[in-house]
């Protein structure tokens, strides 16, 4: 059984590794009247420049035709099945659209809905690749990923509420009050929807400490039976400099010295809505 793994750039993966059976479909980002594709003709620096210029930026799901062309191309390379791991269905309609497309492939395409995005979605991709290497059937990979999906959490904070205000996610008055009081919101995502976790007054460093503390509580309450070496911590950011990235990564490493800790950029589908200066951190289990 030869199984390919397909994901979208919401996972933070932009470059395919066809030798390993990994394929990637780019997410569309609409800037004004122009459509760009993450990782192909749009990178983080360019998206930040559009946001700084005040351009209207929105995101969309991959066109159905693009997805079908990708699936046809993968199966044409001799793969028996494709396991597709898109972003959470609770955040986009792309997952449900992909499930409809999968019906046209006579059981050869399996669409995973394990309610993940960004760093935890990438962890799912890595898990799927390991299973595929062991000749695990696509349907079983799907089942394993969906069963494990809830064993993850993401926390997120933003430096400014301007982009959330521009996107209609908060009111202008709420953004103005938060700016005056120097409030940094901390948000959380556990698969269903993005919720408020808390808020801090002052610097982003204080928001980062709150996110680290939240992860410690997750470990104590939800993953207490997991060996520290099997805890995966994904640190992420959007529109932040190298020094800020390194400090954020070091903070996580110091907080979880025995865990697997790495840095990945936040995907455009998040950065387009949070704006520049967003910081995230996610946790999952390496089984």
From TrEMBL:
Keywords: Lipid-binding. Pfam families: DegV. One of its GO terms (molecular function) is lipid binding. The keyword Glycosyltransferase does not apply. The keyword Membrane does not apply. This is EDD domain protein, DegV family. The lineage of its organism: Bacteria, Bacillati, Bacillota, Tissierellia, Tissierellales.
């Amino acid at each position: 059984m030869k199984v390919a793994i397909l994901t979208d750039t919401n996972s933070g993966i932009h470059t395919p590794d066809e030798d390993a059976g990994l394929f990637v479909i780019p997410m569309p980002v609409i800037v004004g009247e122009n459509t760009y594709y993450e990782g192909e003709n749009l990178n983080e620096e360019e998206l930040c420049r559009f946001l700084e210029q005040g351009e209207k930026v929105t995101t969309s799901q991959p066109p159905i035709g693009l997805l079908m062309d990708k699936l046809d191309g993968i199966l044409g390379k001799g793969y028996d099945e494709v396991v597709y791991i898109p972003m959470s269905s609770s955040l986009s309609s792309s997952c449900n659209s992909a499930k409809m497309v999968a019906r046209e492939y006579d059981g050869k395409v399996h669409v995973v809905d394990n309610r993940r995005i960004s760093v935890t979605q990438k962890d799912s991709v890595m898990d799927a690749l390991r299973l595929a290497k062991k000749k695990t059937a696509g349907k079983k990979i799907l089942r394993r990923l969906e069963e494990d999906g809830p064993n993850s959490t993401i926390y997120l904070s933003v430096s400014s509420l301007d982009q959330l205000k521009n996107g209609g996610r908060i009111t202008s008055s709420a953004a103005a009050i938060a700016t005056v009081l120097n409030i940094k919101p901390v948000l959380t995502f556990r698969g269903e929807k993005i919720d408020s976790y808390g808020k801090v007054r002052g610097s982003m460093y204080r928001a980062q400490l709150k996110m680290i503390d939240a992860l410690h509580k997750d470990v104590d309450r939800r993953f207490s039976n997991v060996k520290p070496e099997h805890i995966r911590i994904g640190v992420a950011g959007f529109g932040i400099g190298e020094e800020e990235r390194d400090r954020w990564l070091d903070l996580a490493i110091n907080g979880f010295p025995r865990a697997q800790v790495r840095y990945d950029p936040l995907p455009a589908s998040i950065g387009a809505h949070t704006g520049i200066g967003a910081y995230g951190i996610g946790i999952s289990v390496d089984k």
